[in-house]
Every structure is written in C-alpha cells, then in structure tokens.
Amino acid sequence: MGARTIIPFGPQHPVLPEPIHLDLVLEDEKVVEAIPSIGFIHRGLERLAEKKDIHEMAYVSERICGICSFTHGMGYCTAIEAVMKIDVPERGHYLRMIWSEMSRIHSHLLWAGLLADGFGFENLFMQSWRLRERILDLIEETTGGRVIFGSCKIGGSRRDIADDVMARLLKELASLEKDCHAITDTFMEDSTVAKRTRGVGVIAPDDAIALGAVGPMLRASGVASDSRSLGYALYPELSFAPIVEKDGDCWARTAVRVREIYQSFDLIRQCAAKMKPGPVDVKVSGNPSGEYWARLEQPRGEVIYYVKGNGTKNLERYRVRTPTFANVPPLVHMLKNIDLADVPVIVLTIDPCISCTER
Amino acid sequence: MGLGKLSFTALKGVFSKPATRRYPFEARPPIAKSRGRIHFDDGKCTYCSLCELKCPPDAIKVDRQGRVFAIDHLLCILCGACVEACQKGSLSMDAKHGEPWTEKQKLSWHTEAPPKPSGDAAPKA
Amino acid sequence: MMIENQPLETVEPAKIAEYAAAKRAGGWRLVQISCTSLADAFELTYSFDKDYALQNARVIQPREGAPLPSITASYLAGFTYENELQDLFGVRLSGLALDFKGQFYRLRAKTPMSEPHVTTKPAAKPAANPTPGN
Fold first, then answer.
1. Using CB atoms within 10 A as the burial measure, which of A325, A327, B12, B102 is most buried?
2. Which residues, listed in sequence order, are joined to residue A281 by a DSSP beta bridge?
3. CB contact under 8 A, C103 and A236
C-alpha cells in the first residue's frame, strides 16, 4: 500500500459549473475514497415558504435551478393542485408537457456540451451549445423567458401557444432534430469519446437501486424507472416507454440522455397532435390544507415536491428532494478504485446540479 | 473521415459566413412576447396598488395618497404578474431587454391628481 | 391528472431502523427523508418506492430524549438525508454509517432550519383596502 494523498476537488474546478466539494483520497493515481460536502450555495429557499404565499412560491420554485427550472415550477404546481383538488384543463397540461420536454432537450444538450468539455472535445462542446441556443430561442418565443420560463402557475399555464407559433415551433424542432444527429452521432460513434467513457464508472443495477440512484443514472444501469410513467400531467395519453441501457458506465449514461433528446422531440410532436383548443387555466381560490408528495421526472431524474398546507396562504412545509441529491451516494460509490483522470467524466455523467441539491 | 470530406469541411469553413452574429454592430431583434422589461405609462395609472399586491419580489411600491409609483428593476423578476393585474393598461411588458443598470436605483413616477369635478384626465375612471 | 395514492403509517422513533430493514428486504427503494420542525418535536417522513407505489412512514422524534436510530445499515444512501437532518435541523442520530458531524453542509449558521415553521402570522403585505398614511 502506497502513501495516501488527499486531493481537494472543488468547490472551484474547471469541470464543475457549480460548487460541490469532494475530498479524493488517493493511493498513487487511484482514488480509494471520495468524501463529498455541500452547502456552498445553500439559500434556504424551503423556508421562504413562510414569507411568500402559495402563488408566489411557484416563481421561487422555478428559481431553484437555472436548467430544469420549468419542471421545478411544474412540480410545485402539481403538488399544490393535488392538495387543493384543482382540475387543470387538458390544454394546460399539454402546454406544460411541451415545455417540460423542451427543457429536457435544452438540459441534455447543455449537459452533452459540458461532458464534451470535460474530456477535452472543445468543438463538440461548442456545437452542442450552438444547437441549444436554437431551442432556447423557441422557449423564449413561447414562454417569454430563456432560462426561467415563468409560464406555469397553480391552476394551469400562464400563456397559450398560438396555432401559427405552434406550426413554426414544430417546423423548427424538426430541423433541429435533424441537426442534432451530427453531434449525437459523434457521441455515440467516435472512438475518442468511447475511450473516455466505455467501462468507466460502472454501477451495477442492484447497487444503483440500493444507493438510491434516479433518472438517467438508474436507467443506464438497466432499471426501467421513469417518473413520467407515474401518470402526472397527461403522460398516460402519450405513447412512451422509459429508455434503458444495460452497461451502467459513463457511455451508457450518455446514450440514455442522447436517446432521451429524440424521445422528447417525439413527445412534443405527440402533444401537438393531441392538443385541442380550449382554456389553459382555471381560477384558483382558497388555501391548501393537507399534504402531498409530487413526483416528477426532471432531466436529471426524479424530483420530489412535498408540500404541507395548513389552510393559510403560506405553506407550513415546502420540501424539495432534487435528483442530484439522490445521485450523490452513487457518485461516491463510483469514485472508488478509479483513476484520478476519470473523476471529471464520472462527476459529469451524474449531471450534477448543485443549486438544485442545496435549494 | 476521408481526406475529401475533411478538405470539403475545411473549405466550407473558409468560404461560409461566420456562424456567430457580429454582436455590437448587429444586435438580435427582440423576440415578440419576450419578457424584456416592465414599461410604465404614468398617464393611465390610477395608483390602485394592485400591482404592488401581486408583485412576488415586492419590487413595486405604490403610494396611493401621494400618487407615486416606484419600481426597482433590479429586484424585478420580470414575471409579468403586475401586467396581468393592471386594470388600466398602465403597465406593459417590453419585449426589448433594456440597457444594463450601472447603479442601484428605484425609478418612480408621480402625477398630480386630476381635478375632482370633471375627471377627464383618465379615459375611463 | 392522476393523483397518487400515498399511504402514510406512523412508526415509533426507536423502531425506524427495523422498519427500514424490512422495507429493504422487501425490495423497496428509499426515495427521500423529509423533516418538518414542530414546536417540541421533529416530524420526519421516510418515503419508499416499489414499482411506482409510494409508501410513507411518519416518525415524530422529540427534540429531547433518545437519538434517532439511523437507517444507513439497510440503506447506505440514507447518509445524505440523515446528515442533512443533522446539519440543517439539528436532529440527533445514532449509528450513522457515514457521520460528517455537521460538515456535510458547510454553512456559516449551524442548524438554520431548526426553529419551528411559523404557521400563523399577519399578512405580509398591506391589505387591498386603503390604509391611510401608507
């Protein structure tokens, strides 16, 4: 046994867009243990529910994260609607699903770029983000915001997509889908990408379940678990099956996300075909009383929104369990007995979102 | 990748237009319905303070007696709740993102109350 | 929209480790542990999932008294949640497999979410009725 060295990884590190700290215990070049710690950007948003009323908290929820913002707002609204027994109109649900799938495409393209940057493929990084820019423009056109959509509220959605805008959106998405193949083919077929990701950071299905992995992490290990199958919003109306890969390594996680981009394009088309004209929201009055755990599928995995209302306009408890928080134990597990040079790639393949984690 | 494809890609790069916009000289036109900045029209405002009530970050302060409307654009999250709440059409959402703020400031407007008997200043009371 | 059926059962604080072990043996996945600060106790909820079915276990842990047994023996993934309980709420735990001793969340303030949530409070904003001298 060689001498042990501890290398601090983060909170500032080129591969980390957000601060998480890992103490990597090394024996020569091998990582034998990783000790995580968080809290650098803890904002206490959960306690803000005491100051902001239930309608304002929808905006706060969206600001938990800058990438999966829409699903956060939608999760909160779903939880409150379940407590207050609000029936959201069909078109409201379809709009929400379209926006949440658009945010999934945008998130996965952003992540693909970060991964490419993580293993030093600068060009692929720029091309991924160039495509992401186009989906951001579509998001801005339909919701008014690029990152914070602000289009979800308790009782439905705040905006409608006009038919001409929808036609243009579908046309642009079809052309974007075609262009995406150029970068995703590189991720799937390029030998340099495979060299850095194949067989790296393998997590077995049993371990993934035992360690509480969620989202693409879990599906890449061969477990077909996707919260969209739970039937929130109107997902049961769409033809949809979780995307599963077998290997459980970094390459499998990349493949799951790449295939999910195309799945999202398909889901948006299905939504657009099934949407009928009608109201997008209902008027909400009264205050929530009761509790509910809303589970939604974010780009990063399952998110839990727990709300507990006591009949006042402020919630008694508002808790968010974000996918990255659940993916920290699997990350620590994967970081054992690997080379130091593989740490950035493995950290990136859980798609870390630390702002989410700490709320 | 064959040499032919490689040289084709290289030549395409040389002769095609730049992929990026030459920003300071050529700005992107604002996207319609984008949430750019809150625009206040002081002629229509009746200082009812509905916008203040609806504002999630409390960026808007309205003095009903003194007839003052004040907005802190740095606190504003551009959600548009005030625009939806405004009954008189005095608040609107500008699609264009404004110039950056160089210092912290609150913009405020004040109008004198219209003469009581006639009330012709406001189109609809 | 489908509203999920979410059964909730109450578990004694001392029994939670055995309860979790039984869930683990039954093939359940630990979804989350949440905590609400009440005036004299912590209201904890352990959520488990099996084939998209959610099962919640409610534990009322008094602020004083015996520390809460950890479930990390059966669910190692629980260390993040349990360290969160320890760091943010000040819940005392025993038998943690990975105890960060308050260093998991590197915060300036210790146990910032420990005080009970304010449940009744006056309206934060002025009422819609005109108030003189606003």
1. A327
2. A156
3. no
